[in-house]
Design a protein that fits this description.
Layout: H1 10-21, H2 29-32, E1 41-46, H3 53-62, E2 66-71, H4 72-77, E3 87-90, H5 104-113, H6 115-123, E4 127-131, H7 133-141, E5 155-158, E6 166-174, E7 187-194, E8 198-201, H8 204-212, E9 216-220, E10 242-246, E11 252-255, H9 285-300
Parallel strand pairs: 1-2, 1-3, 3-4, 4-11
Antiparallel strand pairs: 5-8, 6-7, 6-9, 9-10, 10-11
Helix pairs in contact: 5-7
């Protein structure tokens, strides 16, 4: 047997002595520390052809969220995964090669297998964001506009009137106070990159209802700040300059421009020409969209 066997180590004796000096009921230093608040969890869903998932995840992380990437094939087999997160984002890209139309296949899979789980997420206070191809997916699935809680497909995103792929910076204005991602009256400078972004409504009644119910979330702005915005300020010819649409709850947002591509000041083409977009810029325009969503989740959960 070791000559020190059975003896209590000095550190253990010191801890016992400190504990004896503490008043009864005093919590230990470890327990006294405030629990670190959990970060909102965002599920980043991709499919074959999605190519903006990493920068979209990084934007949410910069805004204060925790992200988890998952392929739609895995999510379809385990839709209960949506109950473990507070948000879902469908990034941009060319899902399934845009075969049969942009977002058609991805949207059909969500409509057939995931739409009920996504609605439960939103009903609990969670958020859903669809960017560019993700907006096309939301439209094809029927999650937007979502009139009266239905999945009727009353919107589409058609080919640009220019008959070309548009890759340029645009100015957006927030025209509704319904969306948790946006703040009415704000303007954002962000890029677009798409060939099928021209929003069209099924009929004039649908178009009017979007405006009446406050579901027109974002509009392209012309050079003088008015409407209609001519090409290229409205890069695709969308009806009423509509760039983004929210659902009736305000917790699902689809937009054609890419806010994740303006999460650093130096990404702006006006970085060296305009102090509001330069190194001293308080918060890049695109990052504000993600920050607003995270702030909502921090209060909702």
């Amino acid at each position: 047997m070791s000559p020190v066997a059975g003896k209590r180590p000095r550190k253990a004796k010191a801890r016992q002595a400190r504990k004896a000096r503490q008043p009864a009921g005093t919590p230990s230093p470890r327990r006294a520390r405030a629990a670190r608040p959990a970060l909102p969890r965002i599920l980043v869903v991709r499919a074959a052809g999605t190519n903006c998932d990493r920068e979209t995840a990084y934007a949410f992380e910069q805004a204060g969220a925790e992200t988890h990437a998952i392929h739609v094939n895995r999510l379809v087999t385990r839709p209960e995964r949506l109950a473990e997160v507070q948000g879902l984002v469908i990034p941009g890209g060319f899902s399934h090669g845009d075969d049969l139309g942009a977002g058609t296949i991805f949207g059909a899979r969500i409509r057939a297998r995931l739409i009920d789980s996504i609605r439960r997420l939103v009903d609990s206070g969670g958020v859903v964001l669809g960017i560019c191809n993700g907006f096309q997916v939301l439209v094809k699935s029927g999650l937007v506009p979502g009139f009266d809680g239905t999945a009727d497909r009353t919107l589409t995103l058609a080919s640009n009137l220019s008959h070309r792929y548009e890759d340029r910076w645009v100015t957006l204005e927030v025209t509704s106070d319904k969306s948790v991602f946006l703040r009415r009256g704000e303007r954002y400078e962000v890029p677009v990159a798409h060939a099928e972004g021209r929003l069209l409504a099924l009929d004039d009644g649908v178009r009017r209802r979007l405006h009446r119910d406050g579901q027109v979330a974002l509009r392209y702005v012309g050079p003088g700040g008015g409407h209609p915005a001519p090409y290229p300020f409205n890069p695709n010819g969308a009806a009423d300059d509509i760039a983004g649409v929210t659902d009736p709850t305000g917790r699902i947002l689809g937009l054609m421009p890419h806010p994740e591509r303006h999460q650093f000041p130096w990404q702006s083409p006006r970085y060296h020409r305009d102090a509001s977009h330069g190194p001293s810029a308080e918060l890049p325009d695109g990052l504000r969209v993600f920050r607003n969503a995270v702030e909502h989740l921090q209060h909702a959960f």
